[in-house]
Amino acid sequence: MLEPNDDFDGRIRDWLEPDQLVVKRVMSRALAAQQRGRRIGRVLAVWVLASLLMTVVGTWIWRATSTDVDEFTATFDGDVLLIRATDGTTAILGPPGGDPLPSGTGRVIFEGEGR
């Protein structure tokens, strides 16, 4: 036996029933967005790991090929450049003298105590 509200309930259920094409379209877009998020996460993880690997390898190569260089200090005393090495040696570079030197020659002036 039909109740008076059965017809009304049926119409409400039909009205609220989602369209299956819309349901499939929403599901496919939601799953595609989820896969796109995973893909972006994977790309970001690969980029971070590649950057870290390049940094580690670059640092290792740089440290392996760097040479130990003795430090020195260079100071000007007027027109004279004094270069002092850590082993105690000193080089003195000064301005050229008054007479021009022949091509291919140089002049060394040393003042002070010799070793």
The percent of residues in helical segments reads 40-55%
Number of strands: 3
Low-confidence segments, given as residue ranges, are none
Total domain units? 2
Q: Which structural class is indicated by helix and strand composition?
A: alpha+beta
Number of helices: 2
Average of per-residue pLDDT values: 79
Reading the helices and strands in chain order gives HHEEE
Instruction: Name the shape in a single word.
Output: rod-shaped
Q: Sheet bearing the most strands, described? A: 3 strands, antiparallel
Task: Round the Cα radius of gyration to an integer and report it.
Answer: 42 Å
Tags for this model:
51% helix, 2 helices, rod-shaped, single chain, 2 domains, 115 residues, alpha+beta, 3-stranded antiparallel sheet, 3 strands
What is the fold's blueprint, element by element?
Blueprint: H1 4-16, H2 20-65, E1 72-77, E2 80-85, E3 90-93
Antiparallel strand pairs: 1-2, 2-3
Commentary on this structure:
There is one protein chain. The protein is an alpha+beta fold and about 120 residues long. The protein has two domains: about 5-65; about 70-110, no CATH class. The protein has helices spanning about 5-15, 20-65; strands at about 70-75, 80-85, 90-95. A three-stranded antiparallel sheet has the order 1-2-3, with no helix packed on it. The mean pLDDT is about 80.
